[in-house]
Amino acid sequence: MVTVPAVQGKRPGGRIGLRRAAIYGVLLVAAIIVLFPYLWMLSCSLKAESEVFTKEAQFIPRTIQWKNYLRVWQDYPLGQWLLNSIIVASVETLCVVATSVLAGYAFSRLRFWGRDALFYLYLGTMMIPIQVTLIPSFLIIKHFGWINTYQGLFLPHLAAPFGVFLMRQFFFNIPFELEDAARIDGCNWLRVLVQVVLPLTLPAVSSLAIFAFTFSWNAFLWPLVVTNTKEMFTIQIGLASMKGEIMAWDALMAASVLSALPILVVYLTFQRYFVKGIATTGLKG
Amino acid sequence: MSERKSKSRAQGKMGRRAFIGWAAGTTAAAVLDTCAPARVSAAPKTILAQAAPRAKATVELWFDLSGAQAKHVESVAAKFNKEFPHIEVRTSVVPSADMPTKLATALAAGSPPDICYIGAPSLVANVIGAGKVEPLDKYRPEITGMDWLEAAKKLVIRDGHMYGVPVNCGVMGLYYNADLYKASGLDPDKPPATWDELLNNAKAIAKPDKAIWGHYFCTKPVPLTADRFWLSYLWQAGGEWLSPDESEVAFNSAAGVEALQFYVDMVHKHKVTPMKAIDNLSMGTEFETGNIGHMTLYAMWVVRAKVMKFPVRTAKLPRHKGEATGTGMGVVPIFKDAKRKEEAWTFLDWLMKPANAIEWNRGLGNLPTRLSLRLEPAWKQVVKENPLIEPFAEGLPTARLEYVGPGALEIAKVVAVGIEGAVFGQKSAKQALDEAAKEANEILKRERAKARG
Prior knowledge:
heterodimer; A: 285 residues; MetI-like fold; 2 domains; 14 helices; 71% helix; 0% strand; B: alpha/beta; D-Maltodextrin-Binding Protein, domain 2; six-stranded mixed beta sheet; 18 helices; 11 strands; globular; disordered N terminus
């Protein structure tokens, strides 16, 4: 039996532990800085209106005002706004994932004339700001009679160049040999994609789903111009319509907390794939 | 690759072209499928429309107010709908900061609402200037000769035609904290009437070490913020924004420098105002803390003042060489591309009736735009119920409208930046205004050249 001699003096592990503690300390401070506005929002959502702005900043409400949530729910069609956002964001996410997987796979595996040029051309559309396409898109949707409808809200965003780029990069990391084996066994392109490749791309698909859902959830300009009634507002437009020269901050904060919940659920659901997806596709924040 | 292709073809598998075709087809099918409910839901509507004996005319009204004010607009529309069963005014709230974007898109696409409550005078001037709105005197010729405020006439009457109904105005006034007055040994019944009195009271109240400040004014360098609030001080000092022929700016006159120096001194010499970026929104919320002695803000804030934990009083803006106050205005035009112009006019005509005009303003915490309405018993009742509004109404005769002509927003921006520069001690008041004037004159020159084509 080999015996390990006792380390005299300072242990190497101690230095590593100190370094780790310092890193955790920095991360903790960063986390507090990032989380503070959200915690403040939560705190204000539970305060009485007169407590939101006081001489001394007060983090813990004197009396918890759950009724703020009830009031905002009764005074505004918040449930409808959330439902609209969930419908629009879900449809957009599903379609963006579907179109990105198919197009990304085609751009990474199939060889056809002008493939790369087409890909870069498509990618180049990311450079065009929404303001440029706003009026033409609005006219198209108006022509179809889809102003103030769900389809009008999500139609222009069913495919995303960013998603195609993300998936294409991910597909390049998957060895061709895996597919060759399936193809020798008689699989067609679609079956190879669905049964062989797709199960390996779950981290990237999850990342894309989170990005697409978040993008859609936070979208403002397009829902602003394409919705005309309170009943069709998405949550972001609804929240903005609550703002004004004179406003009840406690109610606005309660509505903001409620609006953040779905995005939190989506993130927590896909969290374990998210980091992996970001790491493997080489994307950073 | 060709071997792969021939193998897959031989096996009857999907080739690359087939795959691309399938992908496109699937996507299109998915899109059409998601859109299907709308097609289904459209059918019964058509059947109903054919079956109905007389369809109700729907007038679409957009407005950019929130909270209690939004609810009030809806209640006024509901009252009209009850009185006119064949018309339905359908209200739609638009976030106030985003009204220009939404309206511009709708106008460009030829599908604006029938009518729109516009709270920003510059936007009113833009839509009139762009020829997008109907002259209202064709519905009622005497409308231009009614006793509208001068500022209202200046905004909506062009070449003898009136292009919108000014439904309310918000004059700037002084709000002050009566508790801080008492705590500082001041009489809350005696608000400051001059700049000197304002400064003296502010000095008595201010305790910078305890973050208690004497007076708040806007310093945020965004258009229609610092510049708009400073404009009243400029006028009170005897200055003007533009030269009489409007060919160049005049705010960098001796009066302008005096007005801006008053700001600078309050921050640096007397320390009654903190050196920070303040806008109209943050001013109101900071006043709510009870740490601010006075602030300059619009009449509509009286709605908020009533729910403060401390007693709030109001007064006319203190005078200097003269009396003056800035005014904002809510205007409702009928758009040229509106679908229901006649019905829209019926609503506006109804809204101009004294009782309805006063009711509109009562709920919004604003002031009527016709001087005669102040003599109506209904308005006197409003003032009785809410005495805070009276000083604002008293300021109406001296209310003036900011410049809303070509380049107005850009000029507002350079002045706001200049004010910030002076208040933050980066430039002297004169230097800041001279630099802003140079830039503003370039903007005016460019706009004149553009107008000449």
